[in-house]
Amino acid sequence: MPPAAVPAEEPAAAAAEEEQQTKGLPALEGLVVGSYCHDVLLRGGRVVGETLGGAAAFVSNVLDAASPPEASFSVVSKVGPDFAYASAPAPARHPPLLCPAPTTSFHARFSDAAASAHAPDRQLRRVNACDPIYPDDLPDSRFAYGLAVGVAGEVLPETLERMIRLCRAVLVDAQALIRVFDAEGGGSGAAVRHIALEGTPYAPLLQRVAFLKASSEEAPYIGVETARRCCCVIVTEGRDGCRLYWDDGEARVAPFTAVQVDPTGAGDSYLAGFAAGLLWGLSATDAALIGNFFGAAAVSQIGVPTYHPKMLQAVKQILEEKAIQRSSPCISGNMFTFQRSNMHDELHAALQEAARLMCEQRQNDTTTDSCD
Hints:
Helix content: 25-40%
Distance between the termini: 45 Å
Structural class: alpha/beta
Order of helices and strands: HEEEHEEEEEEHEHEEEHHEEEHHHHH
Strand content: 15-25%
Number of domains: 1
Radius of gyration: 19 Å
Strand order of the largest sheet: 4-1-9-10-13-14-15-16
């Protein structure tokens, strides 16, 4: 079980402190807390790919690509002396903290039959675990928003507590809270499984976060009906898009077509795209379209995706046009609009065009994938 969380302050005192802390902070400055990893993909017992992985890699990739030009963010991640992507051709863009323990490493095993399936089966095992991220590892600064995106138990309850104190709004990936690792013999690493969020030291903190994202596989472990009374819950459903649940409403948000090659990082890319949508001033339901778009883009490539400049230009042009209708970024004021706007369908159609452009560009680069 994770270590116990630092006891929360009384709500009124905490709110007053947070208000004082966030006065005068830059409107679009963010904090990303999560790991860089070594990801090894195996199919039929054979290594078919070794890539930079971890939530910090996927999240920063999307935020760098899709955030408004005035936005900035810091990344807190830990790696070991064996970290292979400090100066690789596609390196980690935001420098991590170095510690003595080896870099977190995952092995993802796929069956031969799943090579071209839309949702290939995957057995995930953690081979190495770097040191966790402690509260003192976070910057002594204030932020408009934070993303808690652990993949290997590295975001401790007390670290999430401090993020809440430092950030006006915090978005959390449920896997950071409910993953546990069962070691097995034979040097094959620790199997990944989930535990119920209720009863963990993270559960009392939900009432102080803004959004909690979970995959459809993780959703039964977080208790959607209970969690939605504390924060907005987002459940991603792969090719079926996603659903948002808040205290007095819910919405389904349509997906974008993608041929799945590797599901690694899809949820991280979704959450970063969703955050970017909020930064552009979209409602939560409209921002979920941006999340779905980047989640679909992630599964179509192995490892951290490379976005074609023309596709990114098209997406940013769409967001700039929609941003004309906003008065201020939703994420910086912690005052969120959940219902879809009257431009929701228009935004989806425009992004569909960008998705088709992305598929056409990938077809030009490879003969093995199809966007049919």
